[in-house]
Amino acid sequence: xxSRDTLIRLKRFQADERxxxxxxIETMVAEFERMAGELDREIKVEEAKAGITDPSHFAYPTYxxxxxxxxxxxxxxxxxxxxxxxDARSALADALDDLKMVETLDxxxxxxxxxxxxx
Length: 119
Fold this sequence. Notes:
The protein is mainly α. The protein has a single domain (2-114), classed as Orthogonal Bundle (Helix Hairpins). The protein is 89% helix and 0% strand. The chain has helices at 2-50, 62-118. α1 (2-50) runs antiparallel to α2 (62-118). The longest helix is centred in the last third of the chain and has 57 residues, at 62-118. The radius of gyration is 26 Å and the shape is rod-shaped. The mean pLDDT is 95.
């Protein structure tokens, strides 16, 4: 019985850890996308100030060029994190399935122990 309780606690801990990972990655993706959106606005403001929207133009603002590179890097990182997010969600689903299986087995064993004790 004690080993079952320990196993259930372990599976709950693993599921909680996977849930934390998913939340952490979702937060990072949202933050990167928010930062990329801010850079988009800053780029538009800088282009409006200079009156040049063509990045290949020789007088294109340096800040806008650098902000574009940072924005692209952030979006690339967000895309990479989205792949990791899918993996983390899959791991969470597996951990929850494992937990449910262990809890179901525990419930069955307790029910059989009760039926044996009742006889």
